[in-house]
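S1.2 Input.
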Amino acid sequence: MNAVAILNPNAGAGKTVQLPPTTEVLETRAPGHAVELTRSAIKRGARTVIATGGDGTVNEVVNGFFEDERMIAADAKLAIVPQAIRVWVP
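S1.3 Output.
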């Protein structure tokens, strides 16, 4: 796994974003869930995490890069797609 998109299905206003076909898409279900999804994805080997949603989603994804105030993986990168709710992966 190389890239994971953490998607807030309640964010945005119907915008669509296209992601590479190798991107795993994970949807949040509740506040704080993006932190858990991000940490899990990085621990499973994701090195690019795409925060797809509003400022709350971005904040949670950033926090998910850390555990016990340390980065989980120094080579993990963050990408941000603001307020996109529909994701198309070819």
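S1.4 Remarks. The radius of gyration is 12 Å.
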